[in-house]
Every structure is written in structure tokens, then in C-alpha cells.
Design goal:
The structure holds two protein chains of two kinds. By secondary structure, chain A is of the alpha/beta class. Chain A has 15 helices and twelve strands. Chain A has a five-stranded parallel β-sheet. In chain A, strands 3-4 form a two-stranded antiparallel ribbon. Chain A has a two-stranded antiparallel ribbon with strand order 6-7. Chain A starts with a helix and ends in an 11-residue tail after the last strand. Chain B is built from 16 helices and one strand. The radius of gyration of chain B is 47 Å and the shape is elongated. The relative contact order of chain B is 0.06. Chains A and B meet through α10, α13 and β12 of A and α1, α4, α5 and β1 of B. β12 of chain A pairs antiparallel with β1 of chain B, so a sheet runs across the interface.
Chain lengths: 368, 448
């Protein structure tokens, strides 16, 4: 039932109609719903407001999210809470070096049918769910990691020549540990590119820790007292599709993605020095979608430059391949992205340095 | 309420504002550049001199032309409407609504953002300082004199004082009509050329040129002084003859002789100097000369003539003193010329016999040309000294003798027609050097 409605919705939103902005009263229910989800999330995972917001925007953008952080900072709790809040199916797979693809995708088992005949029956793996938590994904072998490629991109699984679609919506929320790298297999670039965001889950401050210790027995997060219904979820996705992306913002996203390539004319000195390969077109699409989600969460019908700037580091940081010089100089992708965002003028107004507009000096020396 | 039209109007207003500021900014910059260019042009014109000096003010057309052209070029920096819309969006933090206004109708969301009017600020201080500085530079360059820089490769030699002195002498000669105006102009032109080409690397050339002009002026002055002396002498003779006419009243023969002498001196005086013409009219002079030749000068005419002659003599004396003061003639010569004719004059007044004068033959006192003036204190006297006595500070080597000082015998001219004191034989006797003496004795024998 959910699958049929989902397909119907996709058909409606993809049909080419003249662009128009959604009315404020049409958007209001979705915004209220999102705010309620965020409040619930903030109540479950304390001290991670910004992370909660980014994860929800990733889910609204129907993207996969890679969470990176030290053990015990709440990655799994966040994903579980998200699944429960959205009322979606949830499965968790603990990735280990001996984990096989069939352990994730499922396998064919020889069984007797009702008539007593033996036949190979497909036993679905944990991937056949709405939210798959791939815990410590970098501990599995590349073979097993690659088993997720088709599922993540095509949202289907092909086994023994037969393709089976995954439930819609389908998200992979993976986590990985940045330390204890011995015996791990770093995700290949092709797999990393399939993640909408790579979010770094940091620690919390003393006040938050105190709150966790004093209000929660054994630190167990409370169960959400409310969850999003199927209709509400569909309305949320429909509202997402109604968010308008202006051409100027679309161009800014394109320039941003292009500027990550060393050969680009708008590449910064840092990009030219430290980046081997820039972001793919998939990154530009991801930025546009994530920015739409942020606009919706902010209650706006259009995507603004600020939305793009907010999501750009999370979208681009795992897509930039830095060279060894960057490692030697202790430079990470966030520094490179920060440099690009700082130098790339969204308005492309190149006025002389002694002319400023609206109190802030926006002009740069005119380029020859 | 913010509408699509409002946003378009605001973008247009913003664009106009930026265009105006860009034009002003570039215009001021170009004006400053133009002022600097004009200043440099004035400096170049002053350095090059006559070739460009006359065109120096043509460059003032440059700043306004540059300003207009640059202002036009600056408008190429004007941002497009799309860029300014994005700028408005960012300034108002409108969440994409302003940039979307050109694609969709945003009227339903008009209250969602405040479309504040952006303010364009131009920090013009540096530009204005540049403009003022360049204008000051141009004004300073306007004060640069022509021929500011000497020709390439030449160092300026300061000869202004000397040129001024010569110029003063030229002016004196011109004013006293000793030289014609045309000649004075030529001399001035020559002086100007010498000033321009005064090269410290080769000062001798400049000094020689100045000396040449100075000598030229002195020569002219000297010649005039000599002519003036002749004229003064003639005037003195004429004055004496006029006195004699007065003394010879009643003696027709003596009067006629005196009249003849007067006419003779008067003719000579007129031939030497035209000064009399300034005191007496040309027709009057002719009448006086004719009547003197005919012996029919009236006492009144003789009185007028005496007065004119006395004036002329006084005038010549004044000019001689002036020339001597300006060092154009030798003061000694000036004193001689001033004394010239005084004997006659005094003779006339005292009735004593004169001592003659130029053109008047020898006087009672014979002229002595013998007895050279002593050169002591004027020039060095060569003295032969030994090398031990030679002191580089006080001595100058004029030659080195082959033998011992004091042993040198003056070369005796043994033959020839003039002042010969030796006998016949070879023309010269040779001094034998000590180191050759033995060989000579061996060949010619001792005592040779």
C-alpha cells in the first residue's frame, strides 16, 4: 500500500507543470510536523541539535548518511530513534570482517513447497527494510561493502538474475569509527559517493552529560511517545518536492561543485594545491536536494544561498580526494570546502575594493 | 508589500547607483592620471626646450578626455541584473525568494522577508587624495622653467655671473652707440649659445668662448677710444684755433690763419666723430665749416662752436671713464687718452706752447720708446739649480741640462751675419759629456 502511494507521488511530482510556489498555508502542516520530529529527536539525543537537524534533512532528501564518530557518542541511538519516529522499518547489521554479502542481501534456500517439491526460495536479508543501520561499515570486507552499491543507488537487489525492489523509502545510515583502523577496510570512493552526507558525530559538553546521567537510567534514551504516520510521511515528501530551486541558486550549486576541481577557473589556491579529484555531479544533485530539505525545515518555499552553504560541507567532505601534500600539511576536506565557500561569491558582483554594499564589503577586486 | 515589480525597481535603482559611482570613481582616477600626464608633459617640454615648449598647454585637453573615456570604460564593470538580484537576495537574507521572483510569483510570500534597500558605500578618500596630489604635481610642473635639463651628456657650468658682466658691457656699448644694435644682438645671441653649451666636462671651451666675446667687446671699445681720442684731439685743436681767432682780432692775416686751422680741425673732428651733430644741427655745422673755410665766422658762431667742442670733449672723457670702469680698456690707456688734448686745451687757456698730439707731429719733448719695463714681480726668472736644490713645491722644471749646473756655456754662434762674436768653423761648439770625454780624447787627443 505504502509502495503504491509512493510511486503515485513520484509520478505526480515528476510531471512537468509550470513552476509555482507552494502557498504558505499548504506548507505550514509539513513545517509543524518537522519541528515536532526535531523536538522529539532533541529530546532523545541530547546536545546534538545540529546533528539531528542534518540527519532529518538527509532523510527528507531521501539520501543515505554516513555517521562518523567515536564509540558511544549516540550514532546508533540516533538512527534507531529516527526509524521509530518516522514509523519506518528498521534493521541493524553489525559489520564484521567475516560478514558476507548474503548476510545483508539475503540468499536462496532449498525448501519443500506445499506440494512437496523442492525449490530455491529467496530469504530476504536485513537490507529489505526502510532504514538500514550499517554499524561500523568499514569493518566488513570490500566484497560485502560492495553488496550495498546497487541497493543504495538503485534501491533494489539483484540475486541469481532476479531483481527485487527494496521497500520505499529506503535509507542506509552507516556508522564508522575513525580510530582503531587496524583490520578495517576504508570505503571505496564509489561507495562514499553514494552517501548524501558524511556527518561527524562529536562529543557533548559537560551540561549535556550531566543531564544524561541524572535523567536517564543506564543512559538509555526514552522511547518516542509519538511517531509520524504514513500519510504524514508522504505529505512531507510531497512538500519536499514542492520546494522551488531558483536558477541563481542552482547555478551557485553548480559553480560550487565545479570549484572543487583543481582545473576549474574558480578553484581556490587550496584546491589547486591539495585536491586530487573534486566532487561528482552526484554531489551537486545531493546539495540541491539537501538544501531543499533545509528550506522546508525552515518553512520556506524556495532554496536560498544560505541553505546551500549549510549543507555543502556535509555533502562535499567525503567526496573530495585530497593528495598526500594535504595530509603532510595536516589539512582536511573541511578546510578546503571552507576556503571555497569563502571565495566563491554567489552574486558574482566584482566591484572594486573601495565600493561596499549594505554595510558589508562584498566587492572584490575586478578580475582582469 | 514586496512584489516582483518592486524588486525589479530596486535592482534597477541599485544598478544606476553603482553605475554612477563607478563612473565618478573612474573619472576621478583618470583625471588624476591625466594631471600626472600633463605634469610629466610639462616637465618633458621644459627639458627638451624650444621644440616642445610651445605645445606645453595642449596637454591640458588630456585630463577631461581621459576622464570621460575612462568613465565610459568603467561601466563595463557594472554588474548584471541577475547578479544584483542575487546581491539583493543575500543582503536581505530572503531565503531564495528574491532570486526566485524572476521565475515565479512570490506575492504570497511577500511578508516573509524584508526587502531592505541596499546602500552603496564608496570610500573615496584615497581617490580624492590622489586627485589633489596629482593636481599639485601638475601645478608644480607648470612652474618649471624652459631648458630645465641640460642637453644629454653635459654637465651645467655656472657662468651666469660672467655672462651678466659681458651682457652689462654689451648694454653699455649699445646704449652709448659705440656698437650698433644689430651687433649687440649678435653678441647676446652668442652669449646665449655659450650659456646653453656650458659644459663642465670641457670648461676650457666655455671660458675661451667667453674670453673671445670679452676680447671682442674690449677691442671694439679700444677702437672707439682711439677714434674718440683722435676726435678729442681735433676738437682740442679746433678749440685752440677758435681761441686764437679771438686773440688775433685786428690782424687779418692771423685771423685768416686761425680760421683756416679751425676749419681744418673742425673737418677732422667731424670726420672722426659725429658727436658734434648731436650738439649742433647738421646744417649749422655745414655753415660753420663753410664760414670757417671762408674766414667769415661771427663771434656768436665761434662761441657756439667752442661750447659744442667743449661738450664733445667732456662727453668723450665721460665715456672713456665708463669704459675704463667696466675694464673694457686699460686704465693706463684711458688715462693717456684722457690726458690727450689737455695740453692743447691748457695751452689755449694759458697761452703756453703745446706738446703736440696725435697727427700733430712731435712735440717739444721727445718720445722715448727705450727702457723696457721691469719684469720683476711679473714673471718668473729661470734659474739653474742643482737637483738637490730642486723643490717640487717652489720650482718648475723648464728643462734639464746635460752637464753640471754652472758648467754650461751659452751656445756661441760661431758664424752667421748677425751679432757674430765667434770666428769661422763650425756653426756650434759642442759640450762634451764627461762620460764621452775619454773617447773623444782618445780620438782627437787631449785638450780637444
Amino acid at each position: 500500500m505504502l509502495k503504491r502511494k509512493w510511486e503515485f507521488m513520484m509520478t505526480v511530482t515528476d510531471s512537468g507543470t509550470s513552476p509555482h510556489l507552494v502557498a504558505p498555508d499548504e506548507l505550514a502542516p509539513s513545517v509543524q510536523l518537522i519541528r515536532r520530529v526535531l523536538d522529539e529527536l532533541d529530546g532523545i539525543l541530547l546536545g546534538q541539535r545540529q546533528l539531528n537537524r542534518m540527519v532529518l534533512s538527509g532523510v527528507l532528501a531521501r539520501g543515505h548518511i554516513l555517521l562518523e564518530g567515536l564509540p558511544g557518542v549516540g550514532k546508533t541511538a540516533l538512527v534507531k530513534a529516527m526509524g521509530e519516529l518516522l514509523g519506518l522499518g528498521f534493521a541493524r547489521v553489525q559489520f564484521t570482517p567475516d560478514l558476507m554479502p548474503s548476510d545483508i542481501l539475503g540468499s536462496h534456500i532449498l525448501q519443500n513447497d506445499a506440494q512437496g517439491r523442492r525449490e530455491m526460495q529467496f530469504e530476504p536479508g536485513p537490507v529489505f527494510t526502510n532504514i538500514l543501520l550499517a554499524d561500523e561499515i568499514n569493518r566488513a570486507s570490500p566484497k560485502t561493502q560492495s553488496a550495498l552499491l546497487e541497493a543504495m543507488q538503485e534501491r533494489c537487489v539483484t540475486l541469481m538474475g532476479k531483481t527485487r525492489p527494496l521497500p520505499a523509502p529506503f535509507f542506509v545510515l552507516a556508522s564508522q569509527n575513525p580510530i582503531e583502523l587496524e583490520g578495517t577496510y576504508p570505503l571505496p570512493e564509489a561507495q562514499l559517493d553514494r552517501f548524501l552526507f558524511k556527518l561527524t558525530v562529536g562529543g557533548v559538553n559537560v551540561e549535556t552529560l550531566e543531564q544524561i546521567i541524572t535523567t536517564r537510567r543506564r543512559g538509555e534514551p526514552p522511547k518516542p511517545g509519538w511517531k509520524v504516520s504514513e500519510q504524514q510521511l508522504l505529505a512531507l515528501f510531497a512538500a519536499m518536492d514542492a520546494i522551488f530551486l531558483p536558477k541563481a541558486v542552482g547555478r551557485y550549486i553548480s559553480r560550487l561543485a565545479a570549484a572543487t576541481h583543481p582545473a576549474s577557473p574558480e578553484a581556490t589556491e587550496m584546491v589547486r594545491n591539495y585536491v586530487s579529484y573534486g566532487a561528482s555531479p552526484r554531489a551537486a544533485i545531493a546539495m540541491a536536494e539537501a538544501a531543499r530539505a533545509l528550506a522546508l525545515m525552515d518553512g520556506r518555499p524556495t532554496v536560498g544561498f544560505a541553505d546551500v552553504k549549510t549543507v555543502a560541507p556535509a555533502v562535499l567532505n567525503h567526496r573530495l580526494i585530497l593528495n598526500y601534500k594535504a595530509k603532510f600539511d595536516g589539512l582536511d576536506a573541511f578546510a578546503v570546502i571552507g576556503g571555497i565557500l569563502e571565495s566563491l561569491d554567489e552574486a558574482q558582483v566584482h566591484l572594486p575594493s573601495d565600493i561596499a554594499i549594505a554595510g558589508a564589503t562584498i566587492a572584490r577586486e575586478a578580475r582582469a | 508589500m514586496v512584489t516582483v515589480g518592486n524588486i525589479a525597481d530596486r535592482v534597477a535603482a541599485l544598478r544606476l547607483n553603482i553605475a554612477f559611482i563607478l563612473a565618478c570613481r573612474s573619472g576621478i582616477g583618470a583625471l588624476a592620471g591625466g594631471f600626472v600626464a600633463v605634469g610629466l608633459w610639462l616637465l618633458i617640454a621644459a627639458a627638451v626646450g624650444e621644440g616642445l615648449w610651445q605645445y606645453r598647454f595642449h596637454a591640458f585637453l588630456l585630463p577631461p578626455v581621459l576622464g570621460v573615456v575612462w568613465a565610459g570604460v568603467a561601466l563595463r564593470q557594472l554588474p548584471g541584473r541577475g547578479s544584483l538580484t542575487a546581491l539583493l537576495e543575500r543582503t536581505n537574507n530572503a531565503g531564495g525568494l528574491i532570486v526566485a521572483s524572476s521565475e515565479v510569483d512570490i506575492s504570497q510570500w511577500a511578508d516573509a522577508f524584508a526587502a531592505a534597500r541596499p546602500r552603496v558605500v564608496w570610500r573615496m578618500g584615497r581617490r580624492l587624495v590622489g586627485l589633489v596630489a596629482s593636481a599639485a604635481f601638475m601645478i608644480a610642473c607648470m612652474a618649471a622653467p624652459p631648458n630645465l635639463v641640460p642637453p644629454a651628456g653635459m654637465n651645467n657650468l655656472q657662468i651666469d655671473h660672467h655672462v651678466d658682466v659681458i651682457e652689462g658691457r654689451t648694454r653699455l656699448l649699445e646704449e652709448r652707440k659705440i656698437i650698433p644694435q644689430r651687433q649687440a644682438s649678435q653678441i647676446r645671441k652668442e652669449l646665449s649659445n655659450i650659456s646653453k653649451r656650458a659644459d663642465a666636462a670641457d670648461p676650457a671651451k666655455t671660458w675661451e668662448s667667453l674670453d673671445h666675446v670679452k676680447d671682442q667687446l674690449s677691442g671694439l671699445a679700444r677702437r672707439w677710444a682711439q677714434d674718440a681720442a683722435v676726435a678729442k684731439s681735433a676738437a682740442a685743436g679746433a678749440l685752440e684755433a677758435a681761441g686764437n681767432i679771438a686773440l688775433a682780432q685786428g690782424d687779418p692775416a692771423a685771423t685768416a690763419k686761425a680760421m683756416s686751422e679751425l676749419s681744418e680741425h673742425l673737418a677732422e673732428c667731424i670726420a672722426q666723430s659725429e658727436l658734434l651733430l648731436s650738439d649742433l644741427a647738421a646744417g649749422q655745422i655745414a655753415d660753420l665749416l663753410k664760414n670757417a673755410q671762408l674766414g667769415k665766422l661771427s663771434p656768436e658762431q665761434i662761441a657756439a662752436l667752442k661750447e659744442a667742442l667743449a661738450c664733445e670733449m667732456a662727453y668723450i672723457d665721460e665715456r672713456l671713464i665708463e669704459l675704463a670702469d667696466k675694464c673694457m680698456i686699460d686704465p693706463q690707456q684711458a688715462a693717456q687718452l684722457l690726458a690727450c688734448g689737455q695740453c692743447l686745451g691748457s695751452g689755449v687757456s694759458s697761452g703756453q706752447e703745446g706738446s703736440g698730439g696725435i697727427g700733430r707731429g712731435g712735440g717739444p719733448t721727445p718720445m722715448t720708446w727705450a727702457g723696457e719695463s721691469d719684469s720683476a714681480g711679473v714673471e718668473w726668472q729661470p734659474v739653474a739649480i742643482t737637483p738637490q736644490e730642486l723643490s717640487p713645491g717652489t720650482s718648475m722644471v723648464t728643462g734639464i741640462s746635460a752637464g753640471k749646473p754652472g758648467d754650461e756655456q751659452p751656445l756661441v754662434q760661431a758664424g752667421g751675419s748677425l751679432d757674430t762674436s765667434g770666428g769661422a768653423g763650425s756653426a756650434y761648439t759642442h759640450q762634451i759629456l764627461p762620460r764621452h770625454r775619454r773617447a773623444v780624447e782618445a780620438f782627437f787627443g787631449p785638450g780637444q
